[in-house]
Amino acid sequence: MDKRINAIIKKYSDNELALNKIVVSAYMRANGLEANSGFLSSYATDAEDSLCEDVEVLSKDCQLEDVINIFELAIPNSEKTTNGAVYTPKFIREYIVNKALESAKKPLDQCLCADISCGCGAFLYTLSEHIHSKANVPYKDILHNIYGIDISETSIGRAKILLALVALRNGEIVESEDFNLFCGDTLAYDFSSWPAIGLNQGLDIIVGNPPYVRSKNISLKTKQYLSSWDTSKTGNADLYIPFFEIGMSILNETGVLGYITVNTFFKSVNARALRKYLSENQWALKIIDFGEQLVFKKKLAYTCLAFLSKVNSSFIQYSKAVIEDVRLGHNFQFCHISYSNLDNKRGWNLNDTKVLKNIQLIENAGEPLGNKYVIKNGIATLANNVFIFKPLKSDTNYYYIARNGVEFAIERNICRDIIKPNIIKTEADIPQKEEKIIYPYDETSNVVSENFLMKQFPCTYHYLCSCREILDARDKSEGDYGAWFAFGRTQAISDKGRKLLFPYMSDVPHFVYTAQKDMMIYCGYAIYNDSESELLFLKKVLESSVFDYYMRNTSKPYSTGYYSYAKNYVKNFGIFPFTEEQKRHLRSLQIKEEIDAYIAGLYGIAI
């Protein structure tokens, strides 16, 4: 059905009304329904309608989940980027709604429910279905107690259609006035305009999938709204972050909030204020974490389910889950993690008791890696394809490269060696992966003058002039680098010394030693130290099962089995206070099992 859906969506991408009519008519035809009156009557087509052919295509297989899917697919890509709209799978919606309603403190037909980023109404549909089946009340009554808000007027219109179709399927005709669905920006919305909320002293149930929009894709106007909430007023907050605070601000004292959201708020820097907000209030928080598993098709977002209420609790309930267990409705075993043991600034380590104890042993074993050694990021030219190259050939004075079918000579004396730690795993990789970089700086790391570059390195100057348009476009043409041919950032341009190279992310630890002091790095990290023996000792520690265990249980996971090796994650690894004799012994060991056992014994942990 996807190919047919996509063809029809594309055909009517600029005609919202026509697409809505096709979907409504296709659903009614597939299910033997009619709507001669009420809200849906304006969307019905007749036999003479020009849309009939497309209605016929969709009506061969069109159920309510198909309607939701079509509406979600019809959202323009630009709106998905700025508003974070995404289809939430049925089994996830049903699990969240079911658990939320189980916690209700009053009869379900009296509960005020809402989705404050409702999109096309999928969660509202699931709410109405559950309440209808459990409380056996008419859909029209249910709709009076269900509220929704979304920034997209198109989505609100489609949410109304979806809920009206649910009612129609059960023999009920609803009118426009039966809906409590509103178009508005949740970040700045006046929820007191919903009179029932005041009478009820807040909402009983809030469910949904808060919009996940990265800070870089948020408009200036939205950023201004973000600053009005404590959880997002500082730093580069992603859009989902204040939705916890907004939800809790309109939830009543016995209510419950249930979200599917990204699990990055456990550790990300821009969620520090959210972690502080939750910790200080010490509300009952239950988390089902999917870790590196992907719930959303074609969307690289790592998620969790979060249930929150205003019941006071000194601990978080946490469970690491398999997605299939949610689909099958299995019960989960939760461990209790005290709020007082969580570090809001560094990030929350959420895991079972045994793992948390081991992490504590590792971090308290000695001085943190980031304090004991110098860890640095690589350079950032903002135009690597201009500055960094693998020579086609070379001679005494020049390296030769090709660009857009033209061969250029680059003076050898303006180049330095460079390597990308992200793509190397052993010392043997260095000769094959080593590249050259044009380095337009003097011995004190100051950018040379254009006149000096032109006179001393005329071939390189000619080449860089051919790339001027690319270089000028960096930072949207607003960058000030000291010279148009300078690197985009000054970080790491003066870094030299012996080092251990390691990547941004990895499946297992790879720390590669190089004695090439002048070799630069990009797309990766390096640990610097003057002593070769010290770095070779450290390499054994950081490639051990103890460090691997630490990263797998404290770092950000990825779906491919990789984990983030960002400085923020590696720096807190405790370095056991090895004696010089212990260091010599460790360097002498060659068998990995022996190395792992020796280090684990010193740290006092069993993995």
Short précis:
The chain is α/β, with parallel strands linked by helices and 607 residues long. Helix content is 37%, strand content 19%.
Layout of SSEs?
Layout: H1 2-11, H2 16-30, H3 52-59, H4 64-73, H5 77-83, H6 90-102, E1 113-115, H7 122-135, H8 139-144, E2 146-150, H9 153-169, E3 180-183, H10 195-199, E4 203-208, H11 220-226, H12 242-249, E5 251-262, H13 272-281, E6 283-294, E7 302-312, E8 315-320, H14 323-327, E9 335-338, H15 353-363, E10 367-368, H16 369-372, E11 374-377, H17 384-387, E12 388-389, E13 393-394, E14 398-403, E15 406-411, E16 415-419, H18 430-433, E17 435-438, H19 450-456, H20 458-466, H21 468-472, E18 499-502, E19 505-506, E20 512-514, E21 520-521, E22 525-528, H22 532-542, H23 545-554, E23 563-564, H24 567-570, E24 574-575, H25 580-588, H26 592-603
Parallel strand pairs: 1-2, 1-4, 2-3, 4-5, 6-8, 16-21
Antiparallel strand pairs: 5-7, 6-7, 8-9, 10-24, 11-22, 12-17, 13-14, 14-15, 16-17, 18-20, 18-22, 19-23
Helix pairs in contact: 2-3, 2-4, 2-9, 4-9, 6-7, 7-9, 15-23, 19-20, 22-25
